[in-house]
């Protein structure tokens, strides 16, 4: 069985751990009322705040800019403001019907938690309150479900699988490109690359 955390880390390269702070995670978990998955925390600590392959953004709970807690709260508010019951959604557009959800809530113990996003308008949600990992991804009016860990999702995303919906692959051959997100208005971080992947 593949160790997807190790496989994803191997593609991204040595962990940076620039902002790793267990206290920041403890504060965030106390504030949210849920525990974010261990593999997700390891990847965020290793690299975030970061942009991966020009599209995928990961924030960190210990930084002032690109703060994960602020990002989650802001997206929860935006998604909660959508009048889901008033929308005339087709069955393939309604996540309640698609994934057998009793209700659609954001930031609740059994709801959806936005944990990553892309510059293409995709949002990756953790579905809380489930025994096995479940990720739901939204892009425009399309939803996709992945019953897998975040590390497996990231690995499959990076090798070019359709991980945000049909025909959504964002594959770039060669090493994975990583770019730190600027921590001040005048900072312009240069990208760097993970190890050769033979792709």
Beta-strand segment tally: 8
Low-confidence stretches: none
CATH topology name, in short, is: SMI1/KNR4-like
Major sheet strand order: 6-5-4-3-2-1-7-8
Shape: globular
Explain how this protein is built:
The protein has 199 residues and is α+β, with helices and mostly antiparallel strands. It has a single domain, classed as SMI1/KNR4-like (3-Layer(aba) Sandwich), CATH 3.40.1580. The chain is 29% helix and 18% strand. The protein contains 6 helices and 8 strands. Strands 6-5-4-3-2-1-7-8 form an 8-stranded antiparallel β-sheet. α1 packs across α6. The longest helix is centred in the middle third of the chain and has 13 residues, at 68-80. It is globular, with a radius of gyration of 17 Å. The chain starts with a helix and ends in a 6-residue tail after the last strand. The model has no long low-confidence stretch (mean pLDDT 92). It comes from Streptomyces yanii. This is SMI1/KNR4 family protein.
TL;DR of this structure?
This protein is of the alpha+beta class and 199 residues long.
